[in-house]
Write a structure and sequence with these properties.
By secondary structure, the chain is of the alpha/beta class. The protein has ten helices and eleven strands. The protein has a six-stranded mixed β-sheet, with helices on both faces. Strands 1-4-3-2-11 form a five-stranded mixed β-sheet, sandwiched between helices. The radius of gyration is 19 Å and the shape is elongated. GO terms for molecular function: metal ion binding.
Length: 250
């Protein structure tokens, strides 16, 4: 498929124009015109670029790309080495941030909810494109039971603040660095909140508002959207897609 057509396919699927983001979504670094082989991953790190080169990839498709608002603009140091490696091998870089988080089927939230047996019911925010979602556990669990489930499914032990004595029924979630939404979840009387990261104040919010909290890792909670997107592209459009998980403890 031609690069322009591939970019349009992704934009039609993920609709980046419908949400304000912190980075450009879509094609970020232009490479060869024809795309057949794709490497997917969470972040366009040097390790992922090197793996894509080894796989003779025509394109890299990630959740965390480049050119974030507020970052240093000069292409020097680490950024220069990454971009230079892409240009030297004529590899396209495509990145989708919030559009991939909120997609109702292949999104990070949707995929994580499916893995953890959470039924998503609505957005947590009163907007059409809420980044955080809310729903219910298919089977109510105590906080410690849910923490064990997270550990088994994601292969990492979550950081927790367990304050409730009853079982969790309602739960809100936002993959990645969504810890700030805990207060909105508490305002709505939700039993528990799940995200990737925690801040110092997050634990106080949990304790003082009687809402169980789980931080299961930014990387660990956001592996599944980009993986699902790659699987869709392979199945529906015949691309040769390889998901490469570059381990990250955060």
């Amino acid at each position: 498929m031609q690069r322009r057509e591939f970019n349009q396919l992704l934009n039609t699927l993920l609709k980046p124009e419908t949400i304000n983001d912190f980075c450009p979504n879509g094609l970020q670094v232009e490479g060869k015109d024809e795309i057949r082989t794709i490497v997917t991953g969470v972040t366009a790190s040097q390790a992922l670029i090197d793996a894509a080169i080894e796989n003779n990839a025509d394109a890299i498709l990630v959740h965390h790309g480049y050119f974030w608002k507020g970052e240093s603009q000069p292409i020097t140091g680490m950024k220069k080495r990454r971009v230079a490696a892409l240009l030297a091998k004529d590899i396209n870089l495509f990145a989708y941030h919030l559009p991939l988080d909120i997609h109702p089927e292949m999104g990070n939230n949707a995929q994580l909810a499916q893995l953890l047996d959470i039924e998503i019911e609505a957005g947590l925010e009163p907007t059409n494109n809420s980044v955080a979602m809310k729903g219910r556990l298919k089977t109510p669990l105590t906080g410690s039971e849910f923490a064990k489930k997270i550990s088994q499914v994601l292969k990492r032990e979550p950081l927790t603040s367990l304050v409730r004595t009853d079982k969790i029924e309602t739960i809100a979630l936002c993959t990645g660095g969504g810890q700030g939404y805990i207060d909105l979840a508490a305002e709505q009387g939700i039993d528990a909140y799940l995200t990737g990261e925690a801040s110092e104040q997050t634990i106080h919010s949990s304790r003082e508002q009687n809402i169980d909290f789980f931080a299961a890792g930014h990387h660990a909670t956001e592996r599944y959207g980009i993986k699902a997107l790659g699987e869709y592209l392979a199945k529906q459009h015949g691309f040769d897609v390889t998901f490469i998980d570059i381990d990250n403890p955060v």
